Amino acid sequence: MSERGIKVGEATAASGQVARGRIRVAVGTAAAVEMPVVVINGSRPGPTVCITGGVHGGEYPGIEAAIRLSRGLRPEAVRGAVIIVPIVSVPAFQRRAIYVNPMDGININRVFPGNPAGTITEVMAATLFREAVAQSDAFIDLHGGDLVEALVPFTIYYQSGNAAVDEASRKMAEVYGIRYIVRSMAIKGGSYQAAAAMGKPAILTESGGQGILDEPSVQIHVRGVTNVLKHLGVIEGTPDAAEQPVHFPQSSWLAAEQGGIFYPAVSIGQEVEKGQVVGEFRDWFGESIAKVGSPAAGVVLFLVTSPAINKGDPILSVGVFG
Ligand SMILES: [Zn+2]
């Protein structure tokens, strides 16, 4: 609400002002991690929306989109407030670490809403939720393929069982403007899942990948967030007319049953049948070890493009036809 100041970490924005600062995450007595945060507090009342980038530190288009939005939104044009954390996992960004925080080897997007008494990553998750998500009315988490992943853009929302929250999340996903929309049913510590479980409509959006900071992928996120902010009445205007969305009632992940050198036989965006060969493992001498079948019929949403696959690693996910 705009009549009051909004404090997130060390950033406090009075009504009609922008504040930049840091959210310090302490484990024990040391301030171990600092996340940047920008608070744009509008001069008129309205909802508060939280936007995060860099939950995975190698997903650059989402980070860049969050930074641009933080510099482009003016408090006089905002009803309510926007809280932007452009890079959540600063240690992973600095170390170019895929999936996990190199400080403790934990994927923060599996431990939300965090644990204030846990390891550094669990405390980061808990701090982000306490400081930023808890005082927001809606949440958008910007992702992409990690350093070793290619993907077709898609948006995920969690079906929490609260019909009003789920309908609001689904609507946010549709106005974002990415054609492929996945409903997630199983809670696994994802940012958007934990937020929806708290009653906050939320989406996780995926654009770009493979460590490339490319303008089209940044634009998908900038336009998408702008559309949602218009939809929620935070900024003036009507969301762009979106392409007819394709809803997947679930997605199916394929994890490696063994390690080896992986040779994919499909591309992102390709339609596959259940059981269709999607790739092959070979050993270090080039001998075939195993062929891998698609877990479901649908569309390949992401694909790990590094040939170095270990047992248990994700290989791809399929948006499953309803
Ligand atoms: Zn991610």
In words, what does this structure look like?
The chain is an alpha+beta fold. Helices cover 22% and strands 35% of the residues. It is built from six helices and 20 strands. The strands form four sheets. The protein has a nine-stranded mixed β-sheet with strand order 3-4-6-5-7-11-9-10-12, sandwiched between helices. Strands 8, 13, 15, 18 and 20 form a five-stranded antiparallel β-sheet that branches. The protein has a four-stranded antiparallel β-sheet with strand order 17-16-14-19, with no helix packed on it. Helix 4 (163-176) links the parallel strand 9 (154-158) and strand 10. Helix 1 (60-72) packs across helix 6 (215-231). The chain is globular, with a radius of gyration of 20 Å. The structure holds zinc ion. Residues 55-56, 59, 143, 146 line the site of zinc ion.
Structural features:
single chain; 322 residues; alpha+beta; 9-stranded mixed beta sheet; 5-stranded antiparallel beta sheet; binds zinc ion
**Termini separation (Å)?**
40 Å
Which ligands are bound? Answer: zinc ion
Which strand order spans the largest sheet, edge to edge or round the barrel? 3-4-6-5-7-11-9-10-12
The total count of strands amounts to 20
The low-confidence runs, each spanning 5 or more residues with pLDDT under 50, are none
Q: What's the tally of helices?
A: 6
- As a whole number of angstroms, the C-alpha radius of gyration is 20 Å
Mean pLDDT: 96
Outline: globular
Provide the structure class.
alpha+beta
Question: Which H/E pattern describes the elements?
Answer: EEEEEHEHHEEEHEHEHEEEEEEEEE
Proportion of helical residues = 10-25%
- The protein's oligomeric status is single chain
For the report, how would you describe the main beta sheet? 9 strands, mixed
Proportion of beta-strand residues: 25-35%
